[in-house]
Each structure stands twice: as structure tokens, then as C-alpha cells.
């Protein structure tokens, strides 16, 4: 396994700065990492001596744990910073937090923050590679990479596939990174949701088709991805109620009949069962939701390996 030098020391803020060839290299590397994760002894010494900090200013289960596991499986040391329980509560800002961690010898930062652009600031203050683990509504590139890798593994390519993404289109950073990546990789994306949750110019900016009727949106789809209905937005009055939302936009067995016979069902998580997706679909043979989580570790191992210049010998 040779490290590809074009990745060394790079930041990952979103997928717009990564080429098709680079995304394919990340997939090929993740495939190898996935094999390592199946072994009894799931560890290689490639990043021994490196220290990775995960900086989470927002809640997370999947992203945080998978990044930490990924780093540990490559033998890096990991420090885990969470705003809750840190000196942020005493008024310490982002700049001083990063200066403090940097003084302890961090080699790479993983950052989740509610403010778009926070990962760029962490790079400015640290001068170290930064991987965006979700910044506000802006982007969540490692989620998009693991989503696209999950499709690529099953279908062999993304080129020409119809991918329908249903849900809270307006607030989703997962959606934005997926649309950027999928357009690059040649998939044909359709987005679907209530008009109040649909941003303007989605076709113009991302080349995605917009639909308001779920049955039209999933017609002939190779992949359907449900997005979390952000329950906290309900207070903004953007849709009448969860029951009505679920009846119009929830993924049910009935909806699946309109898609291709071998349609893949995806969800980035966390999932509101019974709202955007019914258990009969989430737990069906079409669902690759659990495999997406497994792939999250492999994709993050691949990125850490490529960016930190890992060696296997
Ligand atoms: N998909 C995702 O970002 O999940 P977490 O919020 O649990 O990390």
C-alpha cells in the first residue's frame, strides 16, 4: 500500500476541492481498510507516533466514534475534545482552544462545529491538516464519501445512477456534500421534500432535479436516501406536523414499489424511525444503513492514512 503524495497534508473542508481521481483513490484505500477491519486483530502500525485531535463543539455518535476508532486502528494517539466539560464553558474561544491543543503536539484535527467555516479557522490557528466533520448547514464531506463509497461498493460505479434524496433539504449539510460529490462522480440526483424545506436554485447550484411528490421522485431510482427530519425545526412552523410529514414523505414499502427492484435504501443517521423512514424499510433487505456505519470507519481510516502520509513498513 503506497501513500499517494497528492493527499499529504491536505485539508478536507468539502468535496469541491477533490478530483474524481482522488475520490476513487479514497474509495480504493477504504476497500483495503475495510478488509483490515474484518481481521481478528484490527490494527496496523502505519500512523504510530502521530496524534489526532477530535474537536466536537456539537453532538455526534457516528462521526466522532468512527474517527476515533479509525485513528486507533492506524495506531495513532487520539485526544478527544468536547466543548461540554471543557474550558469553553469558562469562556475560552476557538483560537485559544486550538493554540492550547497545538502546543501539545497535534498532527491533525477533526472538527465539528455549528458555524460554517470553523474548520478553516482551526487550520488558520494550527497550520495543521483539518478534516471537516460537519460545519453548520454547510458541509459534511466524510459522510458524503462514506455514502458514495457504500453505493460504489454495491453498484460498481455512481455514473448514471438515479439517486433520490428525500427529507429536510434546506437544513442538511449531508445533502450539500453528497450533491457536490455525486455530481462529480456522474450520478443523477433528485431531491424531494416539502416546498418550505427546499432551498432555491438547487438545480442551478448543484445540478439536482427537484420534486415535491415522493412517488414521482423515486420512480426508477437506483438509490433512495432519507434525511433526518430535524425535529428541532418543527418549532419554526416549516411543516404542519410529523404525522402529516410522514404520510407524505416517509419511506414505506409502498413507496419502494416505484423504485428499481434492487434499490438501495440509505440514511446517514441519526434516524427518526416512523417519521422519515418506516421500520419496514429501515430493516428491509434493501437497507444498507448499518453498512454505511461500518464503511464510515474504513473511509475515515483511508483519509487519515492518505493525509498523514501513512506507511505500512
Ligand atoms: N451522520 C452523522 O453525522 O451522525 P452523527 O451526528 O451521529 O455523527
Account of the 3D structure:
- The protein is of the alpha/beta class.
- The protein has two domains: 5-138 and 293-307, 3-Layer(aba) Sandwich (Rossmann fold), CATH 3.40.50.1370; 141-289, Rossmann fold (3-Layer(aba) Sandwich).
- The chain is built from twelve helices and nine strands.
- It has helices at 20-37, 62-73, 94-102, 118-126, 141-155, 173-185, 202-206, 214-218, 242-249, 253-256, 279-282, 289-307, and strands spanning 51-56, 77-82, 108-113, 130-135, 162-166, 188-192, 209-211, 223-226, 264-266.
- Helix 5 (141-155) crosses helix 12 (289-307).
- It is globular.
- The mean pLDDT is 94.
- Phosphoric acid mono(formamide)ester is lined by residues 60-63, 134, 140, 143, 268-270.
- The site of phosphoric acid mono(formamide)ester has 10 residues, from helix 2.
Amino acid at each position: 500500500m503506497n501513500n499517494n503524495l497528492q493527499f499529504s497534508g491536505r485539508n478536507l473542508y468539502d468535496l469541491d476541492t477533490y478530483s474524481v481521481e482522488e475520490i476513487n483513490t479514497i474509495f480504493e484505500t477504504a476497500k483495503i481498510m475495510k478488509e483490515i477491519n474484518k481481521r481478528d486483530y484490527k490494527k496496523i502500525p502505519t500512523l504510530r507516533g502521530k496524534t489526532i485531535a477530535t474537536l466536537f463543539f456539537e453532538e455526534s455518535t457516528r462521526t466522532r466514534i468512527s474517527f476515533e476508532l479509525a485513528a486507533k486502528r492506524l495506531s495513532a494517539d487520539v485526544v478527544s475534545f468536547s466543548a461540554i466539560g471543557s474550558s469553553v464553558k469558562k469562556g475560552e474561544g476557538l483560537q485559544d482552544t486550538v493554540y492550547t491543543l497545538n502546543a501539545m503536539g497535534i498532527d491533525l484535527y477533526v472538527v465539528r462545529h455549528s458555524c460554517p467555516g470553523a474548520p478553516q479557522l482551526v487550520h488558520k490557528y494550527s497550520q495543521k491538516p483539518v478534516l471537516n466533520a460537519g460545519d453548520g448547514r454547510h458541509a459534511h464531506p466524510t459522510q458524503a464519501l462514506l455514502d458514495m463509497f457504500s453505493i460504489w461498493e454495491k453498484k460498481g460505479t455512481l455514473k448514471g445512477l438515479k439517486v433520490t434524496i428525500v427529507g429536510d433539504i434546506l437544513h442538511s449539510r449531508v445533502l450539500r456534500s453528497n450533491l457536490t460529490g455525486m455530481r462529480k462522480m456522474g450520478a443523477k440526483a433528485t431531491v424531494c421534500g416539502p416546498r418550505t424545506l427546499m432551498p432555491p436554485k438547487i438545480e442551478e447550484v448543484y445540478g439536482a432535479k427537484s420534486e415535491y411528490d415522493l412517488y414521482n421522485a423515486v420512480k426508477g431510482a437506483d438509490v433512495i436516501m432519507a434525511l433526518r427530519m430535524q425535529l428541532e425545526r418543527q418549532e419554526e412552523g416549516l411543516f404542519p406536523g410529523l404525522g402529516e410529514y410522514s404520510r407524505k414523505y416517509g419511506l414505506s414499502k409502498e413507496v419502494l414499489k416505484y423504485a428499481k427492484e434492487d434499490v438501495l435504501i440509505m440514511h446517514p443517521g441519526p434516524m427518526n424511525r416512523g417519521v422519515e423512514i418506516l421500520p419496514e424499510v429501515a430493516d428491509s433487505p434493501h437497507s444498507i444503513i448499518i453498512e454505511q456505519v461500518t464503511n464510515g470507519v474504513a473511509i475515515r481510516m483511508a483519509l487519515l492514512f492518505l493525509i498523514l502520509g501513512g506507511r505500512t513498513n
